[in-house]
Specification:
heterodimer, A: Rossmann fold, 10 helices, 30% helix, B: 321 residues, Rossmann fold, 2 domains, 8-stranded mixed beta sheet
């Protein structure tokens, strides 16, 4: 089966100023990522702030180019693809429903904008389709002529979803779509995203820092740390048996509403990762309880372990013995 | 033993262009010495206003009233601003959500830590620095002497929140009010910071009022819980009571909304609370949750009775199950 989207060795570096007179530094936000996104799956991408997950989202959307590597959509390189062709097939839903909607436009025209850009139908037709999609995402047609400022956070996120779906894309990149919402609203939006996936046969890339949410919605999960994917596995597998020590810590840190369980000890120490100054070897080694000499020297490659892949020397046939 | 903090009938009204916003409506709770009370609710439920009302830090357009607001034998409702100032930062301290905005970017960590101490306890600069270095060590910051000379922007978010905690501890408070202390932090850092708070609490014997929207945090850290909705406490009890047998439909609905690995089945629909929070401007009658409640009945249009069962209380027409 060929993948809907292929990501091969993608890098993205930014030049970062650290003050007026200081030398510019290079930040490797995304540092060599290989992924295949299969049709119909929900690929969850988890990681903490600064791990490069949002940069990856913007690269997949074609909003920023990769510094190196190749991304292909059904086999066609993104660089050779017209911006509008790409936008018709890959659409975003962003975290902040306050910042991602134009406050001076009415809801219906926000949702109809992609249709207008692609010259699909006349104005009446565009408006009709926009309202149809608004109703599909659970917004009454009477809100069509309101402004975003008159809507609640959850309603705005529904508008963002309607705008993403109005062109009937194949892939929707959701970047922390529920992180700014209250829990009762979050569950409404998650239910909606799951329904829409069924109805329109969508493929999602679902980016979140919330592991419990990703477990609920994803079929496959990629865990990112300092610009790299450190573990890739089917969702059920990653939660049943996390391989990478970082995945284990992340999973231990999920505070489920179970009183009496107390607070977990993550064994992580205080070495907070600095993306501008990543440690040599495995990026996680300063916080890792199992780190050995090899972890400080070599960047681990992916090792397969059952259905999962982990970038950790402990699973490497050559170095694994040291961890026994 | 009498409670450290006793709040009865706390009300906060805000003057807004549209009229009067009833942010906190007749809220009552008690906090015993050394205990952790979590106030949980969604945005706009009045939990932060409750925290600010306790601290005497409400915005100017707010008016606070209470039948009783007593902290450690001092009547806060009647206390002069000078008396409140003397308590705040000393016996009663606060940790805010965003350590970057709560710390002054123009002063070093050491400066800010020492200022609190010298203002309340006096003494020499050296004594204050010694206390600051001691507490930075306690909150897990290595090379404390060096850190004292650094500015907030030189620290990561997790370290800044540790500094905030050290600052709250400077004068040996008996109560810390923490408003969403870990919401701005990464999940792994959140677990570390909460554990640190809990350990320090055990070591120094302070009480903690923790304001949060995160039921997971509540379940893991609270001794007792107060659930707020639309400015009111709708349910309170021990963490075990509230999570094992939530009695108010809002609490039960909220718990059903969150995916829990191992309990909710992946891909299945999550529980949802239909509708949105009512506006709190103008007069509010009856149960504020009734428009969203699956169990609503005509009686809900008048103020719901409060039921109690072994310290577990809830305000709903539906009594014991």
């Amino acid at each position: 089966m060929s993948a809907l989207m292929q990501v091969e060795g993608v890098h993205r570096a930014f030049s970062v100023s650290r003050g007026l007179f200081a030398r510019k530094r290079t930040l490797h936000a995304v540092n060599g990522i290989d992924l295949e996104i299969e049709k119909g799956e929900v690929l969850g991408i988890v990681g903490e702030s600064g791990c490069g997950k949002s940069t990856l989202a913007r690269i997949l959307l074609g909003l920023i180019p990769a510094s190196a590597g190749r991304i292909a959509l059904s086999g066609t390189d993104l660089r050779g693809l017209d911006r509008r062709v790409l936008a018709a097939r890959v659409q975003p839903v962003f975290q902040d429903p306050y910042g991602s909607l134009n406050p001076r436009k009415r809801i219906a025209s926000i949702v109809a904008l992609p249709l207008a850009v692609h010259g699909m139908g006349d104005r009446t037709e565009q408006r009709r389709r926009a309202i149809e999609m608004l109703e599909r995402v659970g917004l009454p047609a009477r809100l069509a002529d309101n402004y975003p400022g008159q809507l609640s956070g959850g309603q705005r996120q529904r508008v963002a979803i309607a705008r993403a779906l109005v062109m009937r894309p194949e892939i929707v990149i959701c970047d922390e779509p529920t992180s700014a919402l209250d829990v009762s609203v979050q569950s409404q939006i998650l239910n909606l995203l799951m329904d829409l996936r069924q109805e329109f046969g969508l493929t999602y890339v679902f980016i979140s820092h919330n592991l419990a949410v990703v477990e609920h919605i994803a079929t496959r999960v990629a865990v990112m740390y300092l610009g790299r994917v450190v573990e890739l596995a089917p969702a059920a597998e990653i939660f049943a048996r996390p391989r990478h020590p970082y995945t284990q810590a992340l999973l231990a840190s999920v505070l489920t509403p179970e009183p009496g369980k107390g607070l977990p000890d993550t064994h992580l120490g205080l070495a907070f990762p600095d993306p501008l100054d990543p440690p040599p070897g495995c990026g996680f080694n300063p916080r890792c309880a199992y780190a050995r000499a090899v972890c400080r020297e070599r960047v681990p490659a992916f090792s397969e372990d059952g259905p999962a892949k982990a970038a950790c020397h402990a699973y490497d046939p050559t170095f694994g013995k040291e961890f026994a | 033993m009498s409670a450290l903090l006793s709040v009865e009938g706390l009300t906060v009204d805000l003057a807004v262009p549209a009229g009067t916003l009833h942010a906190v409506r007749d809220v009552s709770f008690e906090v015993a010495r050394g205990e952790t009370l979590c106030v949980v609710g969604e945005s706009g439920c009045g939990k932060s206003m409750t925290a600010l009302a306790l601290m005497g830090l409400l915005p100017r357009n707010a008016r606070r009233r209470a039948r009783r607001l007593v902290f450690d034998g001092v009547d806060l409702a009647a206390a002069s601003p000078a008396r409140t100032n003397a308590l705040r930062g000393a016996k009663l301290s606060m940790i805010f959500q965003e350590p970057m905005t709560a710390l002054n970017p123009a002063y070093t960590i050491g400066n800010q830590l020492c200022e609190v101490y010298r203002r309340h306890k006096g003494g020499s600069r050296a004594a204050a620095r010694e206390r600051a270095a001691f507490l930075l060590g306690k909150v897990g910051i290595a090379a404390a002497g060096e850190r004292l000379g650094q500015y907030p922007h030189q620290l990561s978010g997790g370290l800044r929140q540790r500094v905030m905690i050290a600052m709250a501890l400077m004068c040996g408070p008996s109560l810390i009010v923490a408003d969403e202390p870990t919401t701005a932090l990464d999940v792994t850092i959140q677990a570390q910071i909460l554990k640190l708070l809990k350990d320090l609490q055990a070591e120094f014997g302070m009480a903690l009022v923790l304001i949060t929207h995160d039921l997971g945090v509540v379940a893991r850290i609270a001794d007792r819980v107060a659930v707020m909705y639309a400015g009111e406490v709708v349910e309170r009890g021990t963490a075990a009571q509230v999570f094992a047998a939530p009695r108010h439909p809002y609490t039960a609905g909220l718990i059903d909304c969150i995916p829990v690995p191992g309990r909710t089945k992946p891909g299945e629909r999550l529980g949802a609370i239909p509708g949105t929070v009512p506006a709190l401007v103008g007069t509010i009658e009856g149960c504020a949750f009734r428009q969203r409640c699956a169990f609503a009945q005509p009686a809900c249009a008048s103020a719901p009775p409060v039921h109690a069962d072994a310290g577990h209380e809830w305000a709903c027409v539906r009594g014991a199950a």
